[in-house]
Amino acid sequence: MEAPASTVYLKDYRPPSFLIPEVVLDIDLQSEDEALVQATLAVRRNPEGAASGTLVLDLDEVAVEAVAIDGEPLVPARWQADARHLTIRDVPESFRLATRSRIHPRRNTKLMGIYTSSTGFFSLCEAEGFRRITPFLDRPDVMARYTVTLHADEERYPVLLANGNLEAQGAEGGGRHWARWVDPFPKPSYLFAVVAARLDREQDSFRTRSGRSVLLQFFVEPGKLDQGRFALDALKQAMKWDEERYGLEVDLDEYNVVAVGDFNAGAMENKGLNIFNTKLVLARADISTDGDFNFIDRTVAHEYFHNWTGNRVTCRDWFQLALKEGLTVFREQQYAGDRYSRAVARIQAVRNLRTGQFPEDAGPMAHPVRPAAYQQVSNFYTATVYQKGAELVRMMHTLVGPENFRKGIALYFRLHDGHAVTTDALVEAIEQASGADLGQFRLWYEQAGTPRLAVRDRYDEATHTYELTVTQSCPPTPGQPTKQALHIPLAVGLLGPNGREFALRVEGEKNGRGTSTVLSLRGETEVFRFLDVPARPVPSLARNFSAPVLVDYPYDEDALQLLLGYDSDPFNRWEAGQRLAMDLLLVGVADFRAGRPVQFPDYLAQAFGRVLADAEQDPAFAAEALSLPPEVVVAEQLQEIDPLAVHRVRFAMRTFLAERLHDAFQGAYERYETPGAYSPDAVSAGRRALRNLSLAFLMDLGAPTTRQRAVRQLETATNMTDALAALSALANCDCPERRVALDAFYAKWQDEPLVVDKWLATEALSRLPGTVERVRDLTLHPAFTLQNPNKVYALLGSFGVNQVNFHAADGSGYRLMTEQALLLDAVNPQVASRMVRNFERYGRFEPVRRDLMRAALEQIAAKPGLSRETAEVVGKALA
Ligand code: 0A1
Ligand code: ZN
């Protein structure tokens, strides 16, 4: 049994007592089972830390064999290693500490530290994995220059990589070789990386705007070089973008990217040696969807952007994770907006926030963007830190404007380059550069929960004055029963009766502001008065989703149709469609639960019909506008979640629209066929999205001719986007074609692990009865293993978001997840705790499911030897 988890508090932060400016590592990969790690650390007391004569290094599953100071071996009485620490007594002010230890890469199923995958040895150190390689002060405010020598069998592991530049390499006895890498940049240990593997290499170069040439190398599994090109080109795009947008140049001579099939995260920004999950780097039209191409492009950019926002300026401690992640996700979103459709990129980001972050913020794991406490930092790589963290940066961008924001970022680097800092450093730099007062804004980093804005209005015919009264509130979250008012940017416009927008003049302000303005909400209730408004307007609120809040305003259907048709802000056009559908879905759910018939009005079909009729202007936007609010987003609105009711009603709305707009969907399906060769660009992808969305609507009607269309699309598709869309449609259709299609798909792609993942996910996401049994069978399928995170995410992760079958009323879905999560917990606790999070919101469900989910959590909690990672989640859920 692991020691009971203890809580780490932000308020307890103290600078380290010692610093380690230099690390020399010698890693001898003797076999898959064992590596010998010899570390020589330059250690000195930190004048800013508490004086101490005892050095306590972190360690985890490392067997320390010997310790020496300044070349003198220490007698065992001077040092002591337990499960978590190496403690050395009576150390001098400044010394060289040498340790010799052993690690066991193949046994490392947690995939943190150095572990094995099919092609060799790989590493992941964020957040606390370096201590699984060698004893160290494994915290991000300890920054060192690293020199790393790797030794391994030459034939089996021809590629030897570490951070920085290759300094020397050579052969040694017994068919082995070595390589020495020197990283000129001081870095925290979480950015350390090594690779020793058999990999193919694609090479290119990038010329920076100051004229330096940077060597770019991508390393992928043998035979997969053709799948690496897209990501390599994306890297060059991202490098160029960061120069143009932020004036930031790549600072390295060599930038290496390695793909590995076994990886806990999506990708990792290790200095000069990014390591990527194969899923987020390998791309080819026949095996990757448009979504994959887009995600790969953004992730390559994200990891590259970290080179400045994360690596050059890093986090003081893990409470500051959003310093690097919020800013980097925001930069990634800007990049995506520039490269794809800005509106569609924003819509997708907000949909992600609503499906992933809003529920988290309303549950037992709710935490501020800068948490104040954690047990396991790995549990805090969350939608809140990443997505809401990016929204906070975006709000500052909105409040100070793009020019000032850029100046703020420049100042941030001028002040903090090479340092480990807190989220305040970023806010302060933006504040200083812009002159804005972000004092109250800082609360966003400290307060959890999704704020709600209640907006009410009044129009005075006589004076032509329009008044908006905005009241903010924020529900209690764990440890935060009451909240203070936040500084919220609320972007608004006013539409006249014919859809034309009024010029805005806000009372108390000298100048007019065009047709869109950002109101600054600071008090609990604020009144904004607009002057010279010729007629009662329809307000367009929180344009471009100017703040991560819920906006409550009593729109009627005429107002929503006006916004959907005419709002100059495309995000709010989309939002109006979502509201229109949401209001009707909520009425439908109430009717369904009361046993009344579920019906939808004509105006819904007319509104969606107009979107479809206008689709040619921007098919990608139309596809987003025609997508109904996801089931989890609807569920979030309910007092008590009944996932089956939500599913049934949403499905009824889909079939209603499919019937009423049958010919239009059919027309779209035919019109938007991919012409010619496949290209993942935004326009082509948008056309495919609309076509496949049309297919999905039509398939819900279940006509045999449509089924045949889907089968034909699956069989003749020249790209994975179209193939997978057809397969998913068939997987949700109770028809004879279904099983044939799924089996044939697996047979065709069984040797492509990333496509097998898509197949597993498609099976697990099916809404049909029998899915629980099918998923259970698939856990025993040769293609599935709990050892590989991608397989777990594909099968169990997808099943966990299946609103019908995971939440089966007989509890069978919960039982399956519980069994698998417990097995997984002994293999890979980080991934297991993510699966267990599927249960955390049990308190929001109707009584039957609530009790079943709670029982599942109790069963998991009672398991002897439960990992700290999972224990934190169940502990908080049951608290
Ligand atoms: N820092 C990486 C992703 C990452 C997340 C969690 C990890 O382990 C708990 C490791 C890496 C990124 O943001 O790209
Ligand atoms: Zn990141």
TrEMBL record:
InterPro entries: Aminopeptidase_N-like_N, Aminopeptidase_N-like_N_sf, PepN_Ig-like_sf, Peptidase_M1, Peptidase_M1_dom, Peptidase_M1_pepN, Peptidase_M1_pepN_C, Peptidase_M1_pepN_C_sf. Transmembrane segments: none annotated. It catalyses: Release of an N-terminal amino acid, Xaa-|-Yaa- from a peptide, amide or arylamide. Xaa is preferably Ala, but may be most amino acids including Pro (slow action). When a terminal hydrophobic residue is followed by a prolyl residue, the two may be released as an intact Xaa-Pro dipeptide. GO terms for molecular function: alanyl aminopeptidase activity; metallopeptidase activity; zinc ion binding. Keywords: Aminopeptidase, Hydrolase, Metal-binding, Metalloprotease, Protease, Zinc. The keyword Flavoprotein does not apply. It comes from the Bacteria. Residues 103-191 form the Aminopeptidase N-like N-terminal domain. Residues 558-879 form the Peptidase M1 alanyl aminopeptidase C-terminal domain. NCBIfam families: pepN_proteo. Belongs to the peptidase M1 family. This is Aminopeptidase N. It comes from Ramlibacter cellulosilyticus.
